[in-house]
Design brief:
Blueprint lengths: L1 H23 L2 H14 L4 H13 L3 H10 L6 H14 L3 H10 L5 H13 L3 H14 L5 H18 L14 H14 L2 H20 L6 H21 L3 H13 L5 H15 L4 H11 L4 H4 L2 H17 L3 H14 L4 H13 L3 H14 L4 H15 L2 H9 L8 H13 L3 H20 L10 H16 L3 H14 L4 H14 L1 H8 L5 H4 L5 H5 L2 H21 L47 H5 L12 H4 L17 H5 L15 H16 L4
Helix pairs in contact: 1-2, 2-3, 3-4, 3-5, 4-5, 5-6, 5-7, 6-7, 7-8, 8-9, 9-10, 10-11, 11-12, 12-13, 12-14, 13-14, 14-15, 14-17, 15-17, 17-18, 17-19, 18-19, 19-20, 20-21, 21-22, 22-23, 23-24, 24-25, 25-26, 26-27, 27-28
Family: Belongs to the SRP72 family.
Protein name: Signal recognition particle subunit SRP72
Keywords: Coiled coil, Cytoplasm, Endoplasmic reticulum, Repeat, Ribonucleoprotein, Signal recognition particle, TPR repeat
């Protein structure tokens, strides 16, 4: 009994330790105490539950799940459902977490919160929205702001990935998270300018919120702002401001944020900016998209876009096998998606295998009729690149849903005209016009009047037929146009012009419908018109021409206006008494008097003559015979320096003096520069 009492006292003490550590947040020590309790009683439900909680708090989710699965008899689903589902959620076993939540007998508030998170990760946004609305409606605690933030994130995801127009939830954007999510929803709707303003507001709120905490550094604030700046750069990229976007993307990468999802998205966007340029930088950025855990941070569409860009980069870097491997993998994952087959076709075209590319696209179009239109457009482009314009036209005409579109009609008519197949071009016009007529026949005239597109097609057809000499066919189109709008004078004039070549009598009858000259007169102030700038110019010009004609009639001959010859500019030191050098325009080496430079004159004289003799006369070396010797190092700004060059005339005005004088001048310049620092 004493031993049992001692054991019970020890267990009670351990539970007190567990309670105290739990309140202090020291779950490592709490876990040690729980393990000691389990040594005494291994099937203690409370102890096992506490152990699981401690492991979760310490981040050991795998070990916690192992404890749950090992003690299933003791830890039933009613007791441990939330902890099990949370461990599975944190281990990215989202489907298992969903099953665990749904199998729980009682749906607690904690399970409902986790259920919303699981639905968001599974991208079941409609169910997720309903779950969070229910939580907000039935909960009143300090986590209401977090729930609203999650609700706004769901709305933003719907707008971005499902292109659903978000409803106004009436959320007050008091936090930067709510502002950020609102901006993402606006980006999904294409309202880029409004989204940028929201992001700027979110940045301001974030700085205010974090600056209130004295422990938060500027680096911490910049790290928190990284995701906001990333969205700003994305908007810039969508607006075509690629240089600004690229600069901001690189600034974020330099911060080395811990969010691998953010880094992967930024790296992918930089790759899309680089395209087929700067491929070495793109290959470096691809490594960021392969980081561990990226697949759990991004949506399926984001991951798919990254894989598409990897395949395109492989094509741009001439990695044909890698490109085929990636595109084939993408096609197996999304058989109905266009991009994988288009990438494969582009790779074949780079290898000059256009025929294989066309066959590949043809097979895809047959297997997936819903996407046949875009595939056939690509096939037509390939045929045009091969020079098979007629075959390209046949492919385009097989796209029934686009036959009546003005762009398609214009393209076909242009190509047929290039091939000089006028009959086929007219047939294209006829089919398009008939489509609109049938479309109108299915509805009443009041509900669907003649569309402007239909009328413009008829007019273009008439103009085309007139241009190519098909007058009779053009007349029927013009009559239809005039019938639709009898007041259209332009159409009536065209119709009369066409009939004048085929049936002049009919043209005369129709000309009676033209408005009279009185009704067509415009109220114009003749005086104002004549005094206008354009009229004055024309009148003056006409007057000059009339005067010229009169002079010609009088036999004075044609008078031409003499151009004033501008006086050439002369140099400041030009001397009119000195005859300019006739060879001044030639380079010095090409002038007749150029003798080349005499280098090393003093060196050549050393050692010449008898021993002890000098080349210079002794009288020249006698200092007593000279009044004064020139200064060897004049001070800057002294008169000697100026007088040396005051009378020198540039060679373009006077033939240069002999070589000795030039040499002496060079020596003087060298002397001046020798002690310039004095």
């Amino acid at each position: 009994k004493m031993a049992a009492a001692a054991g019970a006292a020890a267990v009670a003490g351990l539970w007190s330790e567990v309670n105290r550590c739990g309140q202090n947040g020291d779950f490592v020590r709490a876990l040690k105490s729980v393990n000691k309790i389990l040594q005494i009683n291994k099937d203690d439900v409370t102890a096992l539950h506490c152990k699981v909680v401690c492991l979760i708090q310490n981040g050991n989710f795998k070990e916690a799940l192992g404890v749950i699965n090992t003690h299933t008899k003791v830890l039933t689903s009613d007791v441990i459902a939330f902890e099990k589902a949370y461990c599975e959620y944190r281990l990215n076993r989202i489907e298992s977490a969903l099953k665990t939540i749904q199998s729980a007998s009682q749906q607690t508030d904690k399970l409902k919160e986790l259920y919303g998170q699981v639905l968001y990760r599974l991208e079941r946004y409609d169910d997720c929205l309903a779950a969070y609305r229910d939580l907000i409606r039935n909960s009143q605690d300090e986590y209401e702001e977090e729930r609203k933030t999650n609700l706004s994130a769901v709305v933003a995801a719907q707008s971005t990935w499902e292109k659903v127009v978000p409803e106004d939830l009436g959320l007050r954007e008091a936090t930067y998270e709510l502002c950020y999510n609102s901006a993402c929803a606006l980006i999904g709707q294409g309202k880029l300018n409004e989204a940028m303003k929201k992001l700027q507001k979110a940045e301001e709120l974030c700085r205010q919120s974090l600056s209130e905490d004295s422990d938060v550094t500027e680096e911490d604030i910049e790290a928190e702002l990284a995701i906001i700046h990333g969205q700003m750069a994305y908007i810039m990229q969508l607006q075509g401001r690629t240089e600004d976007a690229l600069q901001l993307y690189n600034q974020i990468i330099k911060l080395k944020p811990t969010d691998v999802g953010l880094l992967a998205v930024i790296a992918n966007n930089i790759i899309t900016i680089n395209k087929d340029q700067n491929v070495f930088d793109s290959k470096k950025k691809v490594k960021l998209t392969n980081a561990e855990g990226v697949e759990h941070k991004l949506s399926k569409k984001q991951l798919q876009a990254i894989e598409f860009n990897k395949a395109l980069l492989a094509m741009y870097t001439n990695q044909a096998d890698q490109c085929r491997k990636l595109s084939a993998s993408l096609q197996s994952q999304s058989p109905e998606h266009l991009l994988p087959v288009l990438i494969q076709a582009a790779q074949l075209c780079r290898e000059k295998q256009h025929a294989k590319a066309v066959v590949l696209l043809q097979d895809f179009a047959e297997q997936h009729p819903a996407n046949a239109a875009e595939i056939k457009l690509t096939m037509a482009q390939l045929k045009i690149a091969q020079g098979s314009v007629t075959k390209a036209c046949m492919i385009l005409r097989s796209i029934e849903e686009l036959q009546h579109k003005p762009g398609m009609v214009s393209a076909l008519v242009t190509m047929y005209s290039h091939e000089e197949d006028i009959d086929s071009a007219i047939e294209v016009f006829t089919q398009a016009i008939q489509w609109y007529q049938q479309h109108q026949a299915s509805q009443t005239r009041e509900a669907n009047p003649t569309s402007p597109v239909h009328l413009s097609l008829i007019r273009e057809a008439a103009n085309f037929k007139l241009k190519h000499g098909r007058k009779k066919e053009a007349i029927s189109d013009l009559e239809e146009l005039w019938k639709q709008n009898p007041k259209d004078v332009h159409t009536l004039a065209q119709l009369i012009s066409a009939y004048s070549l085929v049936d002049p009598e009919k043209a005369k009858v129709l000309s009676k419908h033209l408005p009279s000259s009185d009704t067509m007169s415009l109220k114009v102030d003749v005086d104002v018109l004549e005094n206008s700038h354009g009229a004055t110019y024309v009148r003056k010009k006409a007057g000059k021409l009339t005067g010229d004609n009169q002079q010609k009639e009088q036999g004075q001959g044609e008078v031409k206006k003499k151009k004033k010859k501008k006086k050439g500019k002369l140099p400041k030191n030009y001397d009119p008494k000195v005859t300019p050098d006739p060879e001044r325009w030639l380079p010095m080496r090409e002038r007749s008097y150029y003798r080349g430079r005499k280098k090393g004159k003093k060196k050549d004289q050393v050692g010449k003559g008898t021993q002890g003799s000098t080349t210079t006369g002794s009288s020249e070396l006698d200092a007593s015979r000279t009044a004064s010797s020139p200064p060897t190092s004049p001070r800057p700004g002294s008169g000697a320096a100026v007088s040396a060059t005051s009378n020198v005339i540039p060679p373009r005005h006077q033939k240069p003096a002999g070589a000795p004088a030039a040499k002496k001048k060079q020596q003087q310049k060298k002397k001046k520069g020798a002690k310039g620092g004095w």
